[in-house]
Design brief:
Elements lengths: L4 E5 L21 H14 L3 E4 L9 H8 L7 E7 L5 H14 L4 E6 L10 H19 L4 E4 L4 E4 L3 H6 L5 E4 L3 H10 L2 E4 L4 H17 L5 E10 L3 H11 L5 H10 L6 H11 L6 E3 L2 E2 L12 E4 L1 H13 L4 E5 L3 H11 L12
Parallel strand pairs: 1-2, 1-13, 2-3, 3-4, 4-7, 7-8, 8-9, 9-12, 9-13
Antiparallel strand pairs: 5-6, 10-11, 11-12
Helix pairs in contact: 1-12, 3-4, 4-6, 6-7
């Protein structure tokens, strides 16, 4: 197997806890707190760092990327942008500027978002997303743009900084709906998925590989999942249970509903995975869905001792995963645990395109 990319997660969207559903002011999203997670991830040896984006939650990912980038010497940044909120030429100039600041180590995670306060049906929203991705690819490659789409019509030269860099920035993208899958197959570089059972993961990889081939393209694949790793399986399961020990179910539901993507196809699938799990919350061996009781989106964790978590990750690699985006609670502490117990045993390196 080729080396896999291993990324960590900086909790920009108010998603850091010692006990899920019990907010702790010390762990609330702020520049200082998220900077500390980023520096921990770099010193621990991770290859990349996801900077999530939520309109109503936490702090802005693009502003944070510009601030943290010059502090990092090696690790890449995976900047999440909600494309419904951004005007493509302006976004391209921001990305090109940050990419210069970090020496070409910027990747972008495209989120097919609505404009805040407006709702667009799935098909047109994903068409708009495709157009944003196509425009970013052209502008960031230093190409002049003569583009006529359903949502954007531009005829313009790229900004000077994009011409100087002449470097297309890799686009990571996820979504389970038919429209999302087609958008990824047409334009994305890395298709991201949330936790699921091994047969479901295998089926998604096969489907997306076939879809991309229709367009004469190939995709890399990424897997976003939480981790709870301890020296023994018993300790890991106890740590997972402890995370939920102060959770009020009504608060957990409120947290899930606050997310703007709370009704998406992917979120519904995470709820199905949770509903189909055993009484202990495990959907399959070492895949625990309890995390999803207190957050929207990625709702499961790999729970086990170092060898179990490593084996699970390597199984995903055999199914086609090229990259992992990991997180845990609290984020800085779990990053350190994973880095000490598992990361040295993984053959890993940043993705190349």
């Amino acid at each position: 197997m080729s080396p896999c990319e291993v990324a960590w997660f900086s909790a920009l969207c108010d998603d850091d806890y010692e006990f899920l559903g019990a907010p702790d002011p010390r762990l609330q999203a702020s520049f200082d707190h998220c900077r500390n997670i980023a520096l921990t991830a770099e010193s621990s040896g991770f290859d990349n760092l996801l900077l999530p984006s939520g309109y109503a939650l936490g702090i802005d990912s693009t502003a944070f990327a510009a601030a943290i980038g010059p502090m990092l010497k090696r690790m890449k940044l995976l900047l999440a942008v909600r494309c419904g909120e951004m005007w493509p030429p302006q976004l391209a100039r921001q990305i090109a500027t940050i990419n210069q600041m970090v020496g070409g180590r910027l990747n972008v995670n495209i989120i097919s978002s609505d404009i805040p306060g407006e709702t667009l049906a799935s098909a047109p929203r994903y068409q708009r997303t495709i157009e944003v991705m196509e425009l970013l690819n052209q502008i960031l490659s230093g190409q002049a743009v003569d583009y006529k789409g359903e949502f954007y019509t531009f005829k313009l030269d790229p900004p000077r900084i994009a011409q100087t860099l002449n470097q297309r920035v890799p686009l990571y993208f996820g979504g389970l709906s038919e429209d999302a899958r087609e958008a990824a197959a047409k334009v994305a570089d890395v298709y991201l998925m949330w936790p699921d059972t091994l047969p479901a993961v295998e089926a998604i990889v096969a489907d997306m590989t076939a879809r991309a081939a229709k367009y004469g393209r190939t995709l890399k694949f990424g897997y976003r999942v939480h981790v709870v790793v301890r020296e023994t399986e018993s300790e890991a399961r106890d740590a997972a249970s402890r995370l939920l020990s102060k959770l009020d179910d009504s608060e957990g539901e409120a947290i899930r509903n606050r997310s703007l993507d709370s009704s998406s196809y992917g979120v519904r699938r995470q709820a199905e995975l949770r509903a189909g799990a055993g009484h202990d919350g495990y959907a399959e061996e070492n895949l625990w869905t309890g995390i999803g009781r207190a957050r929207s989106g990625c709702g499961a964790a790999l729970v086990g001792d170092p060898d179990q978590v490593l084996a699970k990750l390597n199984t995903y690699r055999k199914l086609g995963m090229d990259a992992f985006i990991l997180s845990g609670y609290p984020h800085a502490a779990e990053a350190d645990l994973f880095a000490r117990h598992v990361l040295p045993k993984l053959d890993h390196a940043p993705l190349t395109f």
